[in-house]
Amino acid sequence: MRDVYLRAKGAIAYVVVETREGDESIGTAFHIGDGYFITAKHVLEGNRIQEISITQPLSASTGYHDNHLSEEIRPRSLKVAGEPKLADGDVDVAVLRVEAAENIPAIKLSSTDDIYQSEDILLLSRVVCVGYPPIPLTTHPFQVAVDGKINALVRIRGSKYLTYVVSATSRGGFSGGPLIDESGLAIGLVTESLVRDNHPVEAGFFTCLSISAAATLALESGWSPDDSIFYKDIDSLAWVKLALPDTARLNPHTHDASIYVYDDDRDVYVSFSCHDPEVVNIAESAFASICPLHERQLVESGLIWTPKNNPSSSELEIAAIVARDSLIAAGFRVVSQRFSGGWANA
Length: 346
What we know:
Layout: H1 2-8, E1 12-18, E2 24-33, E3 36-39, H2 41-44, E4 48-54, E5 76-78, E6 85-86, E7 94-97, H3 119-122, E8 126-131, E9 144-155, E10 162-166, E11 178-181, E12 186-196, E13 199-210, H4 211-220, E14 236-243, H5 245-250, E15 257-263, E16 268-274, H6 277-288, E17 297-299, E18 302-304, H7 313-329, E19 333-339
Antiparallel strand pairs: 1-2, 1-4, 2-3, 3-7, 4-5, 6-7, 8-9, 8-11, 9-10, 10-13, 11-12, 12-13, 14-15, 14-19, 15-16, 17-18
Helix pairs in contact: 6-7
């Protein structure tokens, strides 16, 4: 994981803020490209940014500091452009943009949306977290890197995004820092330790919000990467996973039925899946009440349907919602869902 850290360190900054009470506090932010930095909302909300600075050279080096730094890779303080954008509600994400970011390296975000994630993929995989926790008696903010493993993939009450439980000790100052996987992709954002009523529940663990939340806010803020940097998966127009009550109660990551609509602005198809053919019939009938369908076809991946009359993306999305609601009425619960908005809104 050392190489992962070395590639990422120059993209990570500390953020010093002044709180409403006049105290000084520190957090972390990381660059994702074009001057856009991601951090935790609670680092900025209600506070005044005093400084955002990168302490590490902007290029990776495994040698000793025996050569002088060039102007291009020297540590630097950054100037914030405009006002930060804070996520709505309880989503602990914020995005800010800085000026003169041409030479600052960027950390790529994972393009894997939460709806694709599973415990089988993630549990016990190695990760590294980087931040700027206060260190007693030190003269400056120092960048700290810790490695750990993902120990659980959980859902927090009231949140539509997944949360990772990571086996590493996190303290104040790590907030807003990236959780980076073995391939160098940011898969999460450090938000908090495991606490209840301000008392630690588990001292050796902390939680990270899925990077899907940060990617969504960054795109809304004007970040516009090409597909080689971040794949937005607009073609997956609608995807809804549903579960029977017992399944949902025992494991919120598994599902018993799904509705999927693919639309790449040329080809369109719909898929309904469930072990019970009657459930498939219910979803198919409800969808067809909005968007009539041709007869089902058997392809290598399973059964698919194609719509008649070339419906718009919005009509297809409405049909998926109606099909979803028909399964909810049949006793299913929504496990997760995602609507891309289609190419018309891209």
